[in-house]
């Protein structure tokens, strides 16, 4: 059949028509008046209703009914939602609807139903429809061809940039931020005077977006890209103040928030982060906002640095967000991406066209009126003869013809003379007529000059823009900053000495070194580090706030924190559990904590696992770490990481096993490997034997090796009794394991001045001097260190180092 159409062709045609309909007729604003069809119809319907800014408000339902009944055949909720947004001071930079009633809130509360609210056009909206009755714009039939509606409004306001716009069409979207009216007018005046000015010249006036909610906008390269290419991204931030309270306490006050952000959701986000301990130092959070403005209050703990909390708010909450600018608008029924200059240029061209069409209309009306007045002036000058002709005529038509023939008048002039009232014959009326005629001649001359002289036309545009600025411009609300300089936490925190303690049960804290004082040899070591019953300090690191803290787990993962990120605690505080800081998996725990200032490729980490594997890797492989951690060493399913140490080529390694075997070899025997490598064999284990400790020592050390068994036996042995072997051997006897001693629990290097601390399975802690444990040979079972109850075991031990710079709790 001749009218057969393939489905492919029909789909292409239908989808293209649908796409164009959505782009032109729904989602993308017109470059001239900056309005989408629904907003344009709302304003025109109110104009037709006479619902101006100086009239009484009308029910919103009345306006919505007119819009959907006459011009916009869609759902009433869509129209009312558009009206509501036009009346919200936090959505529009300059309101186009003056609302009365509940129009929603910045917390996301919905507006009242349209039967309860009332609206009228704002005073600024009147400037959109000025001169619409003077044939300034084209009209088109409405949806049912019964009425006419404007295709664009003859606006004096550069609304596309003033209030911005956002919309998603088919295959494209627009997102134009609002701007300041005064700045836009200044830029338009510059463009009027200098058509060759650049975007950079215009940006001397248009500093950047001006959001109704205020805040900060960082006008860096992203804004320049947006204004020069039509696409770019800027950072926007809320405004935060620090308020002093009584007794040295401080509060952080949020007074302005980023554009289009729901305030209540922001408060909920902050509360969740405080509960999750991602933001520390906030003791109370409350919303004290009222009709005067936004006020979200966060009370801080004493000693908390407010700038650190503010930085966390910007980092983890929408208080800092990105605004993607995409300046897309409909130009001549086609979507087009605009620069700042082209957007302003199109508006100026629209104003020129409106003024020209308005002037032509006014000129035609003025000439028609002057034509009539000229006839009346002739009649008044010859009034006696005019009366004679009229009285001598049998019919009005005869009178009209007689006047036309006698005074060479047109039909319109003759009819005007016949319609003239007798009171116009007075001298006063005669003078008024002459005055009106003279004034009309001046107006006609003025109108012709506008049409004939481009400079005069430019002057009219300039005068109207200047008047618009004087009447409607308001101060800028958003502060423009040159670049986004984020707060560097480390610049706010002094790089002072601190102590990091990690307990056997996983509690960690940071304490300032000032909490301890130097003590002479022979003191009690580190006092005041209380960990609770059944726990003791596993790692005790003296470091500084700016160093990196590396935390290695039994599953071979590594987590990285800055030392200052560890919560600070007093000397007697228990600390927080490490699981609150790290996303640990089930049955995963931290085995080693190391602090480093840098990740030099000449530094090496030595890893030792339960199955006897060892690995040496360069520290620079561990410099970059995700928040979820990285694989520090490749692990088999039946293996666990037991220890990590920072080593050099001059170190020796001693691995000890459960069944009392040990092997000593040089670090040089372990070649450097990649981060994901599993390592090489450090010791050949017998049967079900496992490595329980890894001791690293310099070759000239005076330390001895302290070995402890699960049943409470222990001994110390001189290092020279362990001969250096090749890596991967079966090792030599380190401890005589018997049913009485139980398997070896571990081994550590000790000095005679150190103390030994043991933790038993029934939560008892025993401290003793190393000197109390005699030094014996390798193949011995040692002495009883602690008497255990039946079924009791030693579950952990460590040394308390005693040295010239040891510390004691301040009294």
What's a concise summary of this model?
It is found in: Cytoplasm. It is built from 18 helices and 42 strands. It has 811 residues and is of the alpha+beta class.
**Overall pLDDT:** 88
Strand order of the largest sheet: 14-9-8-17
CATH architecture of the largest domain: 6 Propeller
What percent of residues are in strands?
A: 25-35%
Count of helical stretches: 18
Q: What is the number of E strands?
A: 42
Q: Classify the helix fraction into a percent range.
A: 25-40%
Poorly predicted regions are 517-529, 803-811
CATH topology (level 3) name of the largest domain: Neuraminidase
Number of domains: 4
Largest sheet: 4 strands, mixed
Overall radius of gyration: 43 Å
Shape: rod-shaped
- Secondary structure class reads alpha+beta
End-to-end distance: 105 Å
CATH superfamily of the largest domain: DNA gyrase/topoisomerase IV, subunit A, C-terminal
The level-1 CATH class of the largest domain? Mainly Beta
């Amino acid at each position: 059949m001749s009218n057969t159409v393939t489905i492919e062709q029909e789909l292409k045609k239908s989808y293209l028509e649908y796409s164009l309909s959505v782009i032109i007729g729904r989602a993308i604003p017109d470059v001239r008046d900056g309005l989408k069809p629904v907003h344009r119809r709302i304003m025109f319907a109110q104009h037709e209703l006479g619902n101006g800014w100086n009239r009484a408000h009308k029910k919103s339902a009345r306006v919505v009914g007119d819009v959907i009944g006459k011009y916009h055949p869609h759902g009433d909720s869509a129209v009312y939602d558009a009206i509501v947004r036009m009346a919200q001071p936090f959505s529009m930079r300059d309101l186009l609807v003056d609302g009365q009633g509940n129009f929603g809130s910045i917390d996301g509360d919905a507006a009242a139903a349209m039967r309860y609210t009332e609206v009228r056009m704002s005073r600024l909206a009147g400037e959109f429809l000025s001169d619409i009755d003077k044939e300034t714009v084209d009209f088109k039939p409405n949806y049912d061809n019964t009425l006419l509606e404007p295709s664009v409004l003859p606006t004096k306001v550069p609304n596309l940039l003033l209030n911005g716009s956002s919309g998603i069409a088919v295959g494209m979207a627009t997102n134009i931020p609002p701007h300041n009216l005064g700045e836009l007018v200044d830029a338009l005046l510059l463009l009027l005077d200098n058509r060759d000015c650049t975007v950079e010249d215009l940006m001397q006036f248009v500093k950047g977006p001006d959001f109704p909610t205020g805040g900060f906008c960082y006008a860096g390269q992203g804004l320049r890209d947006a204004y020069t290419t039509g696409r770019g991204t800027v950072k926007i931030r809320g405004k935060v103040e620090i308020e002093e309270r009584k007794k040295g306490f401080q509060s952080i006050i949020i007074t302005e928030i980023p554009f289009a952000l729901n305030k209540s959701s922001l408060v909920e986000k902050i509360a969740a982060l405080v509960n999750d301990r991602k933001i520390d130092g906030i003791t109370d959070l409350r919303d004290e906002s009222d009709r005067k403005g936004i006020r979200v209050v966060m009370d801080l703990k004493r000693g908390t640095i407010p700038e650190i909390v503010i930085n966390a708010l910007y980092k983890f909450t929408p208080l800092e967000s990105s605004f993607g600018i995409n300046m897309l608008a409909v130009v001549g029924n086609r979507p087009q991406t605009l620069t700042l200059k082209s957007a302003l240029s199109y508006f100026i061209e629209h104003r020129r066209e409106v003024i020209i069409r308005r002037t032509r209309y006014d000129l035609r009306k003025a000439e028609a009126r002057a034509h009539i007045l000229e006839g009346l002036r002739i009649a008044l000058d010859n009034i006696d003869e005019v009366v004679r002709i009229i009285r001598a005529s049998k019919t009005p038509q005869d009178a009209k013809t007689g006047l036309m023939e006698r005074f060479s008048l047109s039909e319109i002039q003759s009819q005007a003379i016949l319609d003239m009232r007798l009171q116009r014959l007075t001298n006063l009326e005669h003078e008024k007529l002459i005055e009106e005629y003279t004034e009309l001649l001046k107006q006609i001359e003025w109108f012709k000059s506008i049409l004939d002289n481009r400079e005069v036309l430019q002057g009219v545009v300039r005068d109207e823009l200047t008047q618009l600025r004087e009447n409607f411009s308001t101060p800028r609300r958003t502060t423009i900053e040159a670049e986004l300089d984020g707060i560097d936490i480390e610049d706010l925190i002094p790089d002072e000495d601190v102590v990091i303690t990690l307990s056997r049960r996983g509690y960690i804290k940071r304490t300032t070194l000032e909490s301890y004082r130097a003590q002479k040899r022979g003191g009690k070591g580190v006092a005041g580090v209380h960990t609770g019953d059944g726990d003791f300090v596993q790692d005790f690191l003296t470091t500084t706030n700016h160093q990196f803290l590396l935390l290695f787990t039994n599953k071979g993962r590594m987590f990285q924190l800055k030392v200052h990120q560890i919560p600070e605690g007093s000397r007697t505080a228990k600390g927080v559990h490490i699981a609150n800081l790290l996303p640990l998996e089930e049955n995963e725990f931290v085995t080693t904590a190391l602090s480093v200032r840098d990740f030099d490729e000449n530094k090496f980490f030595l890893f030792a696992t339960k199955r006897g594997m060892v690995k040496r890797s360069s520290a620079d492989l561990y410099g970059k770490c995700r928040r979820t951690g990285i694989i520090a060493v490749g692990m088999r399913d039946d293996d666990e990481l037991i220890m990590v140490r920072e080593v050099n080529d001059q170190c020796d390694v001693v691995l000890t096993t459960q069944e009392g075997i040990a092997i000593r070899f040089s670090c040089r025997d372990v070649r450097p490997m990649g981060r994901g490598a599993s390592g090489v064999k450090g010791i050949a284990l017998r049967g079900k034997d496992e490595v329980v400790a890894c001791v690293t020592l310099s070759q000239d050390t005076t330390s001895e090796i302290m070995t402890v068994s699960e049943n409470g036996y222990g001994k110390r042995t001189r290092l020279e009794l362990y001969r250096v072997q090749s890596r991967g051997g079966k090792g030599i006897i380190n401890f005589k394991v018997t049913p009485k001693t139980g398997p070896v629990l571990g081994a550590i290097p000790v000095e005679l001045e150190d103390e030994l601390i043991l933790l038993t399975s029934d939560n008892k802690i025993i401290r003793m001097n190393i000197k109390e444990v005699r030094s014996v040979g390798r193949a011995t079972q040692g002495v009883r260190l602690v008497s255990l109850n039946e079924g009791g075991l030693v579950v952990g031990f460590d040394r308390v180092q005693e040295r010239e710079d040891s510390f004691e709790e301040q009294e």
